[in-house]
Specification:
This protein has about 290 residues and is α+β, with helices and mostly antiparallel strands. It has helices spanning about 1-45, 60-70, 155-165; strands spanning about 80-90, 100-110, 110-120, 125-130, 135-140, 145-150, 180-185, 190-195, 200-210, 215-225, 230-245, 250-260, 265-280. The chain has a 13-stranded antiparallel sheet, sandwiched between helices. It is elongated, with a radius of gyration of 22 Å.
Length: about 290
């Protein structure tokens, strides 16, 4: 009888501990959701009152003009952020299989937040990757509840700046010379842009076709995708195989991205299709994402 009582007491203790753990994990998830929503709200902003005019790029080299005139229709408000919806697949290394991905992203010159659901079934994990106010963080949880990744260091912040810079191909209005970006034409099809993000100098290289359509984009990004896992500036970029126009802005809608871009070590880890791009208007400022974030 005593043994039975002790076993029941032990079982009750285990149940209590599991309940407490679940409550703590749910509290953490709720906190992370609030943080994500706060960052999303602060990054989104309405377009400027200024509208795009070809005169804004008239002083640039002709290939650069060709890119902007293809990407932004005359009379389009100068967007300062974009809300992207995407789907695709992701992999962790060459030896790992591709897994499905669905995500939303808020992208602006000041930062980004990418909220994703990756994988299916019991192996599905949810979370966010963001850069905001000089901080870069990656948080993901199995089933949206059990934390498996939570990284926030100086290295992740610097790496996130590189990601932000390359992804500005989805917000071409942020690359106009009026935004402090310096452009030059390497030749008729390769362009180079220099900009600064939170005191970090960035150089982007774009490849365009005869119509100005973006074929590829790349830049140096701080990362540890090296043979001995040390951090260094590595070429990262992607190929653009389709495009679409949203509210006067034409952006790539099918991309394949990887580390060591342009080298024999190219490791493609991300493929995505942009299903929707919303360049914010003032009346939509308070529409917030509903995707759960761990």
């Amino acid at each position: 009888m005593v043994v039975y009582f002790l076993l029941m007491l032990l079982l009750l203790g285990v149940v209590v501990l599991i309940t407490i753990a679940l409550i703590l994990l749910m509290g953490l998830r709720s906190h992370n959701r609030r943080v994500a929503r706060k960052i999303w709200r602060r990054l989104q902003s309405p377009p400027q009152s200024t509208k795009f005019h070809p005169a804004m790029v008239a002083g640039l080299p002709m290939p650069v003009q060709r890119y902007f005139l293809h990407a932004i229709a005359p009379g389009t408000p100068i967007a300062t952020s974009v809300d992207l919806k995407m789907q695709g697949r992701f992999r962790f290394s060459l030896t790992h299989p591709w897994i499905s991905m669905q995500a939303k992203e808020l992208l602006s010159r000041r930062g980004f937040i990418w909220q994703a659901t990756i994988g299916r079934g019991l192996s599905q994990f949810q979370g966010a990757d963001y850069y905001y106010e000089r901080r870069g963080r990656m948080q993901f949880a199995l089933g949206g509840l059990l934390p498996i990744v939570d990284v926030q260091t100086a290295d992740t912040a610097r790496s996130a700046i590189g990601r932000l810079a390359v992804e500005l191909m989805w917000l071409p209005t942020a690359l106009l010379p009026q935004q402090g970006v310096e452009w030059r034409a390497i030749d008729d099809n390769f362009l180079e842009a220099q900009l600064t993000i939170d005191d970090e100098p960035v150089k982007l290289t774009f490849q365009i076709d005869a119509e100005g359509r973006l074929l590829a984009g790349s830049g140096l990004r701080w990362g540890d995708q090296t043979s001995d896992r040390h951090w260094d500036y590595l070429p990262m970029g992607g190929y653009c195989s389709a495009e679409c126009t949203f509210a006067g802005v034409t952006i790539p809608t099918q991309v394949s991205v990887g580390w060591h871009f342009g080298t024999e070590q190219f490791f493609e880890f991300f493929q995505a299709t942009i299903d929707q791009a919303d360049f914010f208007t003032a009346k939509r400022l308070h529409e917030l994402p509903v995707m759960p974030v761990s």
